[in-house]
């Protein structure tokens, strides 16, 4: 599955537009990660636990996007947009959503 943020794929003409494909993942914040991230914020540096969680959520969202596009009969997804939102009471969860146009090449 080809996934691109561009609206076209150079040298690969789009034959059919099949519709919007999406993938969403919501992950809860872990209290221990929050504690260590707070310490990290005070002393400086990167919050590795959050980065790892965010990376995993993004990968899963792209996996869902690919799976949905494949079910639609697509060869590729173009015009992909990635969004990150804090959701839940007190911002206790992170949502990663990806969407794009499923196409047949």
UniProtKB/TrEMBL annotation:
Span-the-membrane segments of this chain are: none
* Tree of life domain: Bacteria
- Stored NCBIfam families: PRK02877.1
Q: HAMAP family from the entry? A: UPF0145
> What family does this belong to?
Belongs to the UPF0145 family.
- State what protein this is by name: UPF0145 protein VE26_09300
* Organism expressing this protein natively: Devosia chinhatensis
Organism lineage reads as: Bacteria, Pseudomonadati, Pseudomonadota, Alphaproteobacteria, Hyphomicrobiales
């Amino acid at each position: 599955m080809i996934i691109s943020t561009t609206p076209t794929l150079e040298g690969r003409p789009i034959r059919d537009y099949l519709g919007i494909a999406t993938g969403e993942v919501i992950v809860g914040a872990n209290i221990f990660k929050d504690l260590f991230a707070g310490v990290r914020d005070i002393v400086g540096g990167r919050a590795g636990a959050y980065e790892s969680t965010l990376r995993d959520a993004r990968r899963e969202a792209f996996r869902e996007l690919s799976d949905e596009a494949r079910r639609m009969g697509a060869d590729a997804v173009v015009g992909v947009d990635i969004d990150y939102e804090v959701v839940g009471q007190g911002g206790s969860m992170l949502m990663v959503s990806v969407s794009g146009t499923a196409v047949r090449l």
